[in-house]
Amino acid sequence: MSSFWSIWISVISLGTILGCFLLLRWCLKNKTGVKEGDDMHHDFDGIVEINNPLPRWWTIMFYVTIVWGVIYLALYPGLGNFQGLLGWESSNQDIRSLEASREAHAQDLANGNLNEYSRSIAAAEERFGPIFEAYAKRDIEELARDPEALKVGQRLFLQNCSQCHGSDARGQRGFPNLTDHDWLYGGSPAEIKQTLMEGRRGAMPAWKDSLGEQGVKEVVAYALSLSGRKVDPDLAEAGQSRFAVCAACHGQDGQGNYAFGAPNLTDNIWLYGGSEQAVMETVLEGRNGVMPAWKDILGEEKVHLVTAYVYSLSLGKDE
What we know:
Layout: H1 3-28, E1 39-44, E2 47-50, H2 56-75, H3 98-111, H4 116-136, H5 140-143, H6 147-160, H7 162-165, H8 189-198, E3 200-201, H9 208-225, H10 233-242, H11 244-250, H12 276-285, E4 290-291, H13 300-313
Antiparallel strand pairs: 1-2, 3-4
């Protein structure tokens, strides 16, 4: 913080406290010209105003808050660049990346100079670390049937994954539904964990320049017909011959390919919308979905539990 803003904040903070003190002192003085306890000769609807002083308990409480404000600003950061007599910090300042935050935390642990964030992280690791370590030693299939493990996995999911996939994990446009057993990169425990650990980057190319608008219409008609949709048979027939360029990823039968994250076109489940217009837009402009990697954010032990929770959502459903 620059010196100007440091001084500005300090003046406002201390000036406010001083102003409250002066206002209180002014209110404690009788400037009405009427003796305390006497009638002020004001009445409204039968209610008479009496010149009474401020209640003693109220005055004492006001003084206490003023003194507390001064003590707080002296002990803790709050006056611009002044760090406070206790040297307390909420966290490592000027951190710009997760890696830098972890390095600063490790340095704090080594030096024994912990700020509030580092103390909270250290306390959490000491308390919950053994729990996550124990869960990480168990198979995902076993955890997926353990109610207590699933509660922990669900909390982690709600904190980190629900922003995209929804609190019920049913996804939204552009974000997969995790409950329907329709998987882009595979739905086995190992494949789900790999997706969470490493992330995924989808790459559906745009075909408007290669196929032209008419060619895209034909391919879309054929793709929609694969899931039993009613389409123009002439367009679908023409699209079948053009589908060879799509088969490299989606397969000759259109059932997708886990290796590329290419969706199954035969099940009528559409990530970006299944209307003819939405599918046209996908083929014309392409899609580039990104699933972030969570190994450096949550760590493998927590990812292990989230994997079990996600895997459990589709257990017992038809593949």
